[in-house]
Amino acid sequence: MAEAEEDLYTKDGTVDYRNKPAIKKETGTWKACPYILGNECCERLAYYGMGTNLVLYFKTRLNQHSATASNNVSNWSGTCFITPLIGAFLADAYLGRYWTIACFSVIYVLGMTLLTLSASVPGLKPTCYGKDDCHPTDAQSAVCFMALYLIALGTGGIKPCVSSYGADQFDDADEGEKKQKSSFFNWFYFSINIGALIAASVLVWIQMNVGWGWGFGIPAVAMAIAVMSFFSGTRLYRNQKPAGSPLTRLCQVVVASLRKYQVRVPEDKSLLYEVADAESAIKGSRKLDHTKNLSFFDKAAVEVQSGQVKSSINPWRLCTVTQVEELKGIIRLLPIWATGIIFSTVYGQMSTLFVLQGQTMNAHMGNSGFQIPSASLSIFDTISVIFWVPIYDRLIVPYARKYTGKKNGLTQLQRIGIGLFISIFSMVAAAVLEVIRLRNVREHNYYERDHIPMSIFWQVPQYFIIGCAEVFTFIGQMEFFYEQAPDAMRSLCSALALTTVALGNYLSTLLVTIVTKVSTRNGKLGWIPDNLNYGHIDYFFWLLAMLSALNLTAFLAVANWYTYKTAVGAIRPSNEDFEKKDTL
Question: In the chain, what is the greatest distance between 2 CA atoms, to the nearest angstrom?
């Protein structure tokens, strides 16, 4: 009877919306996922609908130079991927993922609304005397940037939590559900790109041909729909309980290790301190097996006289093996994390230099009068992702599974490495295209022409290749950082993965700044002048291709060193959980 009751509930410690143990058949799995995927699709439509063409808004409405506009977009995008550290900490430590998403969504909607007003209300929007002849005041620019950074804060509570929250709907202790989790990450990224597809096609066209007020207003409405979609699934969700500050636990291990730096770690690792219960002492976390590397931190789990204070454990002097392994796990993730920065720099070129490159080319579709905005070419990155996700999930995984014997076909690190390799060719394609474009400029003296007679659709290969690389690297990272994170630190580790995008954007800004300073010496126009016909952004693309190749070499070295975590046991619902009254 007790066993049957146990099988009724999830074994990963999740609870339902009333804070009671989650019943397997009534909550989670693919029943709950449509609401989360719908939320992500609409939120990404809002984000990309506002961000894809932002570099041109800065140039044409805020009257900024090419390098300045590119750097401002990179800095803002980078901030959007740094703020998830704030949201992740609050989710893991205090609020839980559900309430973190809910609270930060409100901030996001406020930011989108203010941005729409800044582009449409007289007095807030810049005064324009022609299509590209605008003169914003400092106050108008300040309102625009205030709105953008409110959005950056709002997205900080959503980005690190939504993918983890979706994965929480599948019980790690149930092999059937665990197998579906890997598929969830593929379809989660698929939903992101459905939103991005609409943004890069319809919304960019509206911004360029109807107006920026409508172009920003529609994403604001999409964000409101995202919030409604999320709340609609409340009764079906499984929720992980917040486990207290993860940073405190990590600091406790460091302090305890340093205090006992002279203590010798016993050869028999079973002598290291761990609670006797079947479950971990950390709420919402399974026990972790001891690993051999980073053995200095094992000192924190060595029992000595000073570890006992009045028969109670002082966590700043004595930590459990699981707590030590949490810190080890985070440290092991860092080299893998670092190799994602260059990839994100490559990815970031789609919203900066790719757009500026496309602006110099013929944007007409065939012989028609219709012109495709250069920012809309990112639609081919999205189409590539939408094409490759089902191919990967339905063809590559089953085929690879036959040869590797692994349930996911490829390991997460193998998947990431393949994406890093593919990304090199996107920069090669962009560089080769720019070499050919500049040759046409020289041969026909097109230097002063805004658009040379060379179709913008020659950019399609570089976008398509990046889309293919994303399916391997970004989805692989998403799954890797969730699976390898300690149970009670999954939002934080998802945020850690997202910071590679932030640092990639900041690195792009740094490289552009250095390249501009060096290449404009002695009165030269440099690699990235306002008129790219006089520039050499092909050199910049070659530089990124070289850095990507070096980065792949570093990744192969650290991936070979990496040790996967091993979790032990399950988390059973406590009697206290069953006795709780119905509460939201």
Answer: 87
Measured CA to CA, the distance from residue 102 to residue 286 in angstroms comes to 27
- Listed as own residue / partner, the contacts of 30-34 with beta carbons closer than 8 Å and 24 or more positions apart are 30/180, 31/236, 32/169, 32/233, 32/236, 32/237, 32/238, 33/166, 33/169, 33/184, 33/187, 34/233
Helices and strands in the chain: count of H runs, count of E runs: 21, 8
Going by C-alpha positions, the residue among 405, 458, 469 that lies closest to residue 430 is 458
Does residue 44 register a pLDDT over 70? Answer: yes
b/e 319-341 (16+ beta carbons within 10 angstroms → b): bbbbbbbbbbbbebbeebbebbb
Q: What is the token pair recorded at 571? A: 């988390």
Residue 358 near residue 463, CB atoms below 8 Å: no
Q: What is the pTM of this model?
A: 0.77
494-536 pLDDT, tens per residue? 888 888 888 888 898 889 889 988 888 887 888 888 788 888 8
Look at 67-81, 335-349, 506-520, 537-551 and tell me which has the smallest mean pLDDT: 67-81
- Please state, in angstroms and as integers, the Cα–Cα distance from residue 154 to each residue in 112, 114, 141, following that order: 10, 13, 20
What is the distance between the alpha carbons of residues 329 and 291, in angstroms, rounded to a whole number? 10
Are 465 and 431 within 8 A, CB to CB?
Answer: no
Radius of gyration for the chain, computed over Cα atoms and rounded to the nearest angstrom: 26
Amino acid sitting at position 582: D
As given in the structure block, the two tokens for residue 521 are 């010496």
The CA distance from 498 to 501, in Å, is 6
